[in-house]
Design goal:
Largest sheet: 6 strands, antiparallel
CATH class: Alpha Beta
Number of domains: 1
Order of helices and strands: HEEEEEEHEE
Shape: globular
Radius of gyration: 16 Å
CATH architecture: Roll
Number of helices: 2
Number of strands: 8
CATH topology: Chitinase A, domain 3
Structural class: alpha+beta
Distance between the termini: 36 Å
C-alpha cells in the first residue's frame, strides 16, 4: 500500500519536490451525498499541465465534524497519476485507511487538503509533486516529480482524548 509507505519516506526526509510545474485540474464523475463512503468514485483526469500548488475541490460537502490537526480521520480514497489518470491505489478493495491528521503520516497534500473537510464529504485533491512524493517518487508506480490526484471520502473524525485534568472540547 502506497500511503502507509509515506511514513517511511517522511521519516527519512525524502518527501520533497521541485515545485516547478504548471497548473492543472481534474474532474470526478457526478457525485451525490448518498454515494459518499458507499460507492467508489469514478475519476476522469482532465488533460492539463501539472499544478504548481494544491488544488482542492469539494465534490460533496460533508455536514459532520470538521477534520483538524490531531484528529484521527478515517477515509476511503482513490489515488491516480495526474498525467494520465492511471489508478495507482485505492482503499475501496479493502478497508478504509485511518491516520492522525497533522502527524506527518501522509503526504503534505493530504495534510493540507483534508484539514477543514467535514465528515460525510468527498473531496478531490490535485497535488504537485512537491506536496506528494517529490523527487523520490515510489517507483515503479509513482515516478519522481509526479503530480497526483486523490478523491477522498471522509468517513470518520475522532478528536484526541483530552489530557488528564483537561476538560473535553465543547
Amino acid at each position: 500500500m502506497i500511503i502507509p509507505l509515506l511514513v517511511i519516506l517522511v521519516c527519512a526526509g525524502l518527501v520533497a519536490g521541485d515545485g516547478d510545474s504548471e497548473s492543472g485540474s481534474s474532474a470526478a464523475a457526478a457525485t451525490s451525498a448518498s454515494e459518499v463512503g458507499k460507492t467508489k468514485p469514478r475519476v476522469q483526469v482532465a488533460k492539463a499541465p501539472p499544478p504548481t500548488k494544491l488544488e482542492v475541490k469539494d465534490l460533496v460537502e460533508g455536514t459532520g465534524a470538521e477534520a483538524k490537526d490531531g484528529d484521527e480521520v478515517t477515509v476511503h480514497y482513490v489515488l491516480l497519476l495526474q498525467k494520465n489518470g492511471k489508478e495507482v491505489e485505492s482503499s475501496w478493495s479493502g478497508k478504509p485507511f485511518s491516520f492522525e491528521l497533522g502527524a506527518g503520516q501522509v503526504t503534505d497534500g493530504w495534510e493540507q487538503g483534508i484539514e477543514g473537510m467535514r465528515k460525510g464529504g468527498r473531496r478531490e485533491l490535485v497535488a504537485p509533486s512537491s506536496l506528494s512524493y517529490g523527487k523520490a517518487g515510489i517507483p515503479p508506480e509513482i515516478k519522481p516529480n509526479e503530480a497526483l490526484v486523490s478523491v477522498i471520502d471522509l468517513l470518520k473524525v475522532k478528536e484526541p482524548a483530552p489530557a488528564p485534568g483537561q476538560a473535553p472540547s465543547p
